[in-house]
Amino acid sequence: MKKKRMVLVMAVSAMCMMAGCGNTVKDGTEALEQGDYDTAIASFEEAAGSDDKEEAAEGYCGLGMTYYEQKQYDQALEMLEKAFDNGTVKTAELCNLAGTSALCKEDYAKALEYIQEGIALAEEKQGNKKQEDKKQETLLQEMKYNEIICLEKTADWEMAKEKMSEYQAAYPEDESVAKEAEFLQTR
Fold it and tell me: Signal peptide: which range, if any (predicted)?
């Protein structure tokens, strides 16, 4: 859980540095990093209410991450979508958060959409680098597994089997998917 929080905080911090965000977003980011969700929410809500569209987008993004950390997936997804609507650049990490939030609230079609978008972004980013980034590869693996789950939940068995086969070829060391692969063979 702490590892995931650090990924979230790093994503908000990177976004904040690139955009030169205001103090409210910085305060919210620091509070999120410390696990002080009430303070984070208050800071990010203030930023989301800004007339500056970029600051508002950062505020919504921060709110999405804070709600995600609290396992409030409905609110997390709503805030992430508002962030995207206000101009937040979609990254593999943010698409994964939105997809995972949709998956947790059983909106499998929306989850699949975000996860596939995140996979495409991660693969594009990975293709643009000479050295493989372990964090990016771990994120990509997580999204590819979640894609299989979404396909199962929408009863797209053939595509789920195909994606499972691709997953096992790409990640043969992941023995935890053996039962899932066996289940898919019965479909």
Answer: 1-19
Please check the confidence at residue 131 and state whether its pLDDT lies above 60.
Answer: no
Is 187 part of a structural domain of the chain?
no
Tens of pLDDT along 24-63? 888 999 999 999 999 999 999 999 999 999 999 999 999 9
Is there a domain that residue 32 lies in? yes
Range of the domain at 126: 2-138
Spatial CA neighbour of 40 closest among 9, 82, 74: 9
Which CATH number do you get for residue 51? 1.25.40.10
Per-residue model confidence (pLDDT) at position 18: 44
Total domains in the fold of the chain: 1
Contact between residue 37 and residue 64 where contact means Cβ atoms under 8 Å apart: no
